[in-house]
Design brief:
With 295 residues, the chain is mainly α. It has one domain. It contains 14 helices and no strands. The longest helix is centred in the C-terminal third of the chain and has 28 residues, at 206-233.
Length: 295
Amino acid sequence: MQKKLLGPTLAALIAVILFSTGGLCIKRLDLSALAIAGFRAMVSAFFIGLYLVHKSKTYKLPKISRTGWLAAASYAVMTTTYVLSMKMTTAANAIFLQSTMPAWVLIGGAIWLRESITRSRLITIAFCTFGMMLFFIDELSPRQWQGNMFALVSGASYALLVLALRKDRHSNPNGAVFWGNAVTAILVIPVALLLFPDTLSLLTGWRTWIGLLWLGIFQIGLAYLLFVYALKYLPAIEVAIITLVEPLLNPFWVYLDIGEKPGQWAIIGGILILFSVIIKSLMRETSKEDLKVIE
């Protein structure tokens, strides 16, 4: 069992590492956050679309189930509300509140997917939440409540995305990710162009497109292909717990880039989260419900 789940676990971890490169790359771009979200989604939709064409040998748009459309809609909401939260509250608040996702997945997975609520999963989430508080102890702020609300919605929609992709694992979850990116691009790009008229002129720079190509192809496109693969074999809550490593990696990339060192509490919180996730991954349960993950 553990050997069969090693590949999906590594796939989830690689996906999270790719997700984590977004923060630094976004900071390097001169585009507005909305423009980045929209054009990143456009590039990702093209990349995943080409993958699906190669895999299916057809040139038709992917068909998805109702659950797939729920995943696509959740993706669009998650992306948009996260960008809004980053604009309206502190980055620490946005990341911390979006990281409530595993708690939502634990509850939703038990109700919708009939996954187990085990003691170790509860303890892991509790330890990770405490570690996250230590990680952002010097940056969290109760102000800017509108942005905080958007961040909470982003976390809940992220959870719904994970649950829907897991539920849709035997259908066409990659198609759902394609449509999620396509819908995001269609909705967000016109708004970005309207609110930020200089967007088109900024898109003429080759460095801008290198950044967008990285974000669309690797940070989102390839990452979600691996993410979907992991969700095919692992319970949604197990993948959700692994995603808690992402907030730790963001400052790591910043440190490598500009040498900005995290504080003492951030290091302690990061070690606590990393230790909890590793122990949980090595000591995964094999309950009757979870035995179905490789079927």
